[in-house]
Amino acid sequence: MNNRNYHIRRATESDIPFLVKTILGADAGNGHIASYAAVFGLSNADASKYIGEMMTEEMEGCELSPLHFLVAEYEHDVVAATAAWVEESDGIASWVVRSALFQEYFPPTAIEHAQSISELAQSMVLKRTPGTMQLESLFVEPEHRGKGLARMLFAEQARLVSNSFPDVKIAQLMTYTDNTPAIGAYEKMGFTKIRETISNNPNVLKYYPGRGMLIMEIELKNLLK
Fold this sequence. Notes:
Mean pLDDT: 95
Number of domains: 1
Strand order of the largest sheet: 1-2-3-4-5-7-6
CATH architecture: 3-Layer(aba) Sandwich
CATH superfamily: Gcn5-related N-acetyltransferase (GNAT)
Distance between the termini: 22 Å
Oligomer: single chain
Shape: globular
Helix content: 25-40%
Number of strands: 7
Strand content: 15-25%
CATH topology: Aminopeptidase
């Protein structure tokens, strides 16, 4: 298989099941815990159900909307996806949009569970930079890894953002500090580490697939090469 076997397109509502798989798979990183489930005291199946429901609302400004996703198809099957948006392009931070969706779609018991570990969750928080392209929730099916799909998806997202927001010059992504395979792959693309946070909470690995979060960035023009 080479790159010509793949077709990149915008996601549609019919792709939501794969996008939910993408969000939870990317969130789990190289571990088995997806924070979207664990932080809220949910099973992966329940988290998938609620995230699928919230994605039908198509709110802009975070990864929980098919509006921001591109998918890669191979022989008419979707095999990879990633989301991108410009942080605070409408003046609202992505964490605010995300929180509003959780409040609306997750059950009260899940919100209460998240609130009960809020101090731990805050120790994992990193602030995204307003006015930058945010790349989020990259997932490639295992049998299609090593084909350059991440670079293809990032490049097309960069092209779309450059056309719509010509003043945006920087792309950022966030990953777990423990996800060394992903970090190495991003560094090969030209991303550099700019900020990280490490949690000292002894229970952090019960809720997250890593002990901290890392932001990496690259000049947008370098994704378009």
